[in-house]
Amino acid sequence: MTNVPRCRSRGRSGQRPSDDALADWIRYVEQALHRPTFTVRPKYAKDFEVLYGVILQSARYGMAFLQLREAGLHREAEALARAAMEHAITAHWVFFTEGGRDRFVVAINADFRRYYEVMAEWLEDSALQKKVEEISEYPGRGMPRFTQIMNDFGGSFLTTAYRSLSLSVHPTHNTVLKYLEHSDGGVEVRTEARDANSFPALYLTAISSMLALSLVEFMIDPSRAEELLDDASERLRLPIFIHAELPEGKRRAI
After folding, report:
1. What is the per-residue pLDDT across 170-216, written as a single tens digit (0 to 9) for each?
2. What InterPro entries does UniProt report for this protein, alphabetically (predicted)?
């Protein structure tokens, strides 16, 4: 059995990485995943086929996050930070959880079938209905809720970060308050979100980028994945892997 790289405390000092360094890392990862070919370990070939799109999408959300952020749309970019995080963490859960890949396959097959069912009914299209009948239903459980996935990885930090980003995605109290100023003279509206703090979203997006690249590198060569990314991890204080937090009984033997 391959030794499993574990998360550990990162960073040689208490200084946080600069915004520019984190942004450069996000760009680097998105480019690093655009390779003409990938030579993965044969035992991980099916994993790669199922997960590459999820991994790349996380990195592309990271790039889109940067573009919105650079345009001054910091709060709007947080929605993409959340999407990058959800894709990267889901990919790690699917790969490192015992039976995770099978559950993901069940889920994506059900999504595929449900799409054609809804479209066939809405359009009253017999050709689409035939397509539904051609899609086999895979037996077994689908994916757990994302909250459960985060709990499997230790929960506290990931759940807090995800909920914080979600405040920008849904119409919440945060949405209302960000565009108002209360004073003795009454209430004034703002056209820019109040008290924007974009660093947490940038840092979480950089973590997602690290998780995206580390999973690909692991499938290529498990023994070298952590070594290849160690310098960036130390310098930017980013965890390379999070699966050491999975309960032992749920962890896949890799």
Report:
1. 888 888 888 888 888 888 887 777 666 689 999 999 999 999 999 99
2. DUF5677
Regarding pTM above 0.85, the answer is yes
Sequence-ordered list of residues with C-beta below 8 angstroms from that of 145, at least 6 positions apart, any chain: none
- Measure the CA angle with vertex 239, ends 170 and 166; round to 5°: 5
List the one residue out of 63, 65, 59, 108 whose CA is nearest residue 88.
59
Give 235's contacts (C-beta < 8 A, 6+ positions apart). Answer: 11, 17, 21
At which residue do the structure tokens 């054609």 appear? Answer: 116
d(CA 192, CA 146): 31
Query: What gap in Å lies between CA 99 and CA 228, rounded to an integer?
Result: 28
In the numeric block, the tokens 């915004």 are attached to 19
pLDDT tens, residue by residue, 21-73: 999 999 999 999 999 999 999 999 999 999 999 999 999 999 999 999 999 99
Please tell me whether residue 51 adopts helix, strand or coil conformation: helix
DSSP 3-state assignment of 6?
Answer: coil
HSE-CB of 249 using CA atoms within 13 angstroms? 0
DSSP element (H, E) containing 66: helix 45-70
Instruction: Show the tokens assigned to 225.
Output: 């994945």
Nearest to 128 by CA among 114, 148, 149: 114
Q: Which candidate, 176, 179, 158, places its Cα nearest to that of 167?
A: 176
